[in-house]
Design brief:
There is one protein chain. 78% of the residues lie in helices and 0% in strands. With 18 residues, it is mostly helical. This is Muscle skeletal receptor tyrosine kinase. Keywords: Kinase, Receptor, Transferase. GO terms for molecular function: kinase activity.
């Protein structure tokens, strides 16, 4: 994504959800 922070946050959520 454009914002690294947003991308990292999304990945973290996906990882936690998984």
């Amino acid at each position: 994504g454009e914002t690294v922070v947003k991308e990292t946050a999304r990945i973290a959520v996906l990882d936690s959800g998984n």
